[in-house]
Design brief:
By secondary structure, the chain is α+β, with helices and mostly antiparallel strands. The protein has three domains: 2-77, no CATH class; 86-276, SET domain (Beta-clip-like, Beta Complex), CATH 2.170.270.10; 308-411, no CATH class. The protein is 40% helix and 16% strand. It contains 15 helices and 14 strands. It has helices spanning 2-24, 52-57, 70-77, 115-123, 172-177, 180-192, 196-203, 210-217, 285-293, 302-305, 308-328, 340-351, 357-370, 374-391, 397-407; strands at residues 88-94, 97-102, 109-113, 130-131, 137-142, 146-151, 160-165, 168-171, 219-222, 232-236, 244-245, 251-256, 259-264, 273-276. Strands 1-2-3-8-10-9 form a six-stranded mixed β-sheet, with helices on both faces. The longest helix is centred in the N-terminal third of the chain and has 23 residues, at 2-24. Bound molecules: zinc ion (ZN). Residues 1-23 form the signal peptide.
């Protein structure tokens, strides 16, 4: 969207330039580009002038040579100011929460937040539409679920499916504190500042009104990852909201600096529906189903709709995962053996918790290190690093920490700490 706008702008300016030069002659040159040999002097215009051939390179096919100084031309074809320079706001402030907007960045984005948080968001390089191209999925009406996404080819684990920048970011606490009339006024102001395409995409999401659409489709994230309550924000990504829910999702997502990245959490076959999880997938089935009902539908995933004995087995595994996690985190007394971490990781694999294997392998790797088992610690640390590169990004601190453990378990602070302790 940004590049299209830029092209249109360049085209319009060149048409204006053509009109100007035909009417008034070439503007004077400041000779700023002397010594640049990439353009031959033109017979009609001289060295400082540019012909229709050059204009053609930037998208305008002029039959008659247009003479203008390279400086003038370059001014015209220079990219527009960076998106970060095109923010509006603060506007419509209520109790220190205001509207900020940018019609260029990300194709249009509105914020409902404090000036302090807005400054941080403005510093992000919020990314417009990206990911696998052509998209390895198509949109489809899926029975019992509404709109969904389905793979149109086999997809390899770790493949990035879509990256999207937020269309609307709103501070959660402000939305909760405001009276409905105030809140809706802020929504209207934020919507009015979005370009039509972005606004239409937002409004096409499921939900009665803006508030309901935000509630049902938004993704929560903390500005700069801070746990502080006012750092909690909701972000709208209308394209990502097309992923339906599955309690055992095949797609993982992560949000970095308000840009969301969706990644295949396992190998996916052509024809499979692509799904993320809307809720905590470690919850037992009853609670998961209740949470999903908050979205206004019954969970239709294979696990929830499958045979009862499978649900019972799944819940049993989840209870065991919970128990082992507590034991592995217990450093006051030894309730685990060197193998407990590996069992913990295996339960994740059996349960199909693909998007959480990184943290499971991490616990296993650390536990082997704590018991002084170099080989197994190294093995699980490498696996953890691989999974964490998908879950949190290749450059994430967690992935890096596991690469360091894998390279030298003996140098790690955990090394041998449990081995020497007896029950
Ligand atoms: Zn389910």
């Amino acid at each position: 969207m940004i590049s299209n706008n830029s092209n249109h702008r360049v085209l319009a300016m060149l048409i204006a330039l053509a009109t100007y030069t035909f009417a008034f002659g070439a503007p004077e040159s400041a000779h700023m580009f002397e010594g640049q040999d990439d353009e031959q002097p033109d017979a009609v215009c001289g060295r400082d002038c540019i012909t229709g051939i050059t204009a053609g390179i930037v998208g305008l096919n002029l039959r008659t040579p247009v003479c203008a100084s390279p400086e003038f031309i370059r001014k015209i074809v220079l990219p527009p100011p960076p998106p970060s320079a095109q923010w509006s706001g603060p506007e419509n402030c209520v109790n220190g929460t205001c509207i900020f907007s940018n019609v260029v960045q990300n194709g249009g984005i509105s914020l409902i937040t404090s000036p302090q948080h807005a400054d941080i968001i403005k510093s992000y390089d919020i990314d417009a539409d990206g990911g696998a191209y052509p998209p390895p999925f198509y949109t489809e009406q899926i029975e019992g679920k509404g709109i969904g996404l389905r793979a149109n080819r086999s997809i390899v684990k770790g493949e990035v499916l879509m990256t999207r920048g937020a269309t609307l970011i709103a501070q959660t606490e402000a939305l909760i504190e405001w009276e409905v009339a105030v809140r809706d006024t802020m929504y209207d102001a934020a919507m009015a500042r979005l370009p039509k395409g972005r606004r239409d995409a937002f409004l096409a999401q499921m939900g009665r009104d803006v508030h309901d659409k935000i509630n049902k489709n938004s993704f929560q994230f903390f500005i700069h990852g801070a746990g502080e309550e006012r750092a909690r924000h909701l972000a709208a990504y209308p394209d990502i909201a097309k992923f339906n829910h599955d309690c055992r999702p095949n797609v993982h997502y992560r949000i970095t600096d308000a840009t969301i990245t969706t990644i295949a959490a396992r190998d996916i076959q052509r024809g499979e529906e692509l799904a993320i999880s809307y809720t905590d997938i470690f919850l037992p089935s009853k609670q998961r189903k209740e949470r999903i009902q908050n979205w206004g539908f019954e969970c239709a995933c294979a696990l929830c709709q499958g045979p009862k004995n499978e649900t019972i087995a799944s819940d049993k595994r989840l209870r065991r995962i919970e128990k082992l996690k507590a034991d592995l985190n217990n450093f006051k007394e030894i309730k685990v053996t060197a193998e407990t971490g590996a069992e913990y990781a295996t339960l994740h694999e059996e349960e199909g918790l693909h998007a959480h294997l990184g943290s499971a392998y991490t616990r296993a790797a650390l536990n082997f290190a704590l018991f002084g088992d170099e080989e197994r610690s190294r093995e699980y640390a490498w696996r953890a690093a691989e999974e964490l590169s998908i879950e949190k990004g290749p450059e994430s601190g967690d992935a890096q920490a596991m690469r360091e453990l894998a390279e030298n378990p003996r140098a790690h602070w955990t090394w041998g700490k449990r081995r020497t302790l007896k029950k």
